[in-house]
Every structure is written in C-alpha cells, then in structure tokens.
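Researcher: Final request for today, and then I'll write up notes for the group meeting. The sequence and the SMILES for zinc ion follow.
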Amino acid sequence: MTKPIRGRFAPSPSGRMHLGNLFAALLAWLDVRSLGGEMLLRMEDLDPDRCKPAYTPQLAEDLRWLGLDWDLGWQEGQDEYCQSYRTEFYAEAFRALEGEGLVYPCYCSRKELLAASAPHGSDGARVYSGRCRGLSPAERAALEAQGRRPAWRIAVPEETISFTDGNFGPQSEVLSRDCGDFILRRSDGVYAYQLAVTADDGLMGVNRVVRGWDLLSSTPRQIWLMERLGYAVPTYCHLPLLCSGEGRRLAKRDRDLDVGALRRVTTPEKVTGFLARAAGLIDRFEAVSPRELIGEFSWERVGRADRVVEEIDWASL
Ligand SMILES: [Zn+2]
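Model: Predicted protein-zinc ion complex:
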C-alpha cells in the first residue's frame, strides 16, 4: 500500500500571520487536498526570543477562520506538535549526527565569522570557511577557558545534492561550496531550524512540503540531513511570494495586512478570493471558500513569479 500524501502547515507564532502567510497556507492546503492527502499543523516556535505561546492558539484560529482544516497535529492542549516541546527529538538527531563524527564546536564570534567567510553562497548568504573544523582538543580547551561557548556545526561533504522541485524544477547545490558547514545548535543551546525541521518532517511522516521559495536554498541541506538520519525525503514544491509595491516580500510589519486587521475589515471568502486571483487559480475576483477551489488548483497556474500586492480596498471588492 502506498503511503497517503501528508503535507503540513508550519507557521511560527512570532506574531499574527499576514496575507503572505495566508497565501502560502492556502496553496499548501489546496495542493494536498487536490491530491486527496492529509494536512498536519506544526508550530515552529523554536526561537524563544521571537515566539510567544499566546500566539499559538491564535494562529490555529486564524487558519480555521480562512476555511482551512487539518487532520492531525496541533490542537488546543496538544503541545507535542510545538517545536518548543520537541527538544528531545532534536537532541536525538543531534547525537546521531555526532555519532557519525560530523559535528564540531565553532567558537567564532560574529566578527570572526564575517572576516573568515566567503562573501556569497548560492542565496547570498555567507559560506562558513570551516575555520573551527580542524581545531585540536588543546585549542578547543583554550577557547573554552576564555569563556567562549561554542555553537555546533555539521561538516558537509563536497557532495552535489540534486532534486526536482515540484514547481521550480531541477535544482542542485554543492553543499561545501554553496552553503558550507552549517549550524545545528546555537551557542545558547537552541537547536537550529534546519535540524528541527528535518527531524520533524521525518518523524511526522511529512512527504510533501509546500512553502515559499525563500526556503528553496535551504532544501539541499534538509535533504542531506534527512538522508543522514534515515528519513524518507519528501517532495518539495516552492511557491512564489507576495510582495509589497516596493518589491519586497510582505512581512509582519505590514500591519494592515495582518490577519487581525483583515478580520476587522473583510470576510474569509473575500480574502480567499483575493489570494486565489493572485495565485492565478481564478480569472476574476469573486468571494469563494478554499474548498470550492480544490478543483481549480494547479502548479501551472501558480507558476514561479512573485505577486505584487498594491493597496487593497476590501470594501469595494
Ligand atoms: Zn568557527
């Protein structure tokens, strides 16, 4: 028997979602529902500096408001689907990688990282030089004695990771050249997003990941980790982003487009209609529910180009 398609919503409770988050959530849901698959909700609240528990139920409620549902994952009182409750799984994955001899402490300060890293990786991020990879035990001890607390990096091979994105097509990256040894655990003990998301998708049996293309460049790292940890690699499909008139992607600072503001001025059907029109799923704006769009979903219509959102007059829609 083949496994059912399982997709996921993975929002961060660092504030109210905005229109761009709803765009991604709606399309992820439509993709999975159009394939007859199931959805899971996971709260990515790993970063205690950014995330607040109070936002978690609000996120779920905002997804429901739009008309989206999920079959498993977070529900009120089930915090085992919050990353902040899943540290033991990340610790286990970390230990498994450590056991392969791939993990090492990095003592670099921010300034040292800037000085020692190549300026650009494939996504404009800095590529770590591997400066701390070859430190001897004595050198490590000396740095520890200075009171430096290390972050933990994984040594990546000179290996080309290739995959076919469900929307962006064939992709490939040489981990050592385009990304470099990346962080698995921060110096304050918090596990890094790359490790957590890999362990979660693997353990939760997620086999279809639909998300914004801003995460396309981290996909090879996740695929490589999945293979190291013995998980089945999901199919990845990356979405275009919603951008503001100035061409930058919508962010939580666009207050008038956060769900709290939207809920005061418009209806979920209008928001869904607006997003479906922006996604190319319908030709003319109409108020519509997500369920009515399942038959309209296709990746050809969604395409790859980011969408610009000008000021929206909800009352006149
Ligand atoms: Zn270092």
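Model: The chain is about 35% helix and 15% strand. The mean pLDDT is 94.
Researcher: Thanks, that's everything.
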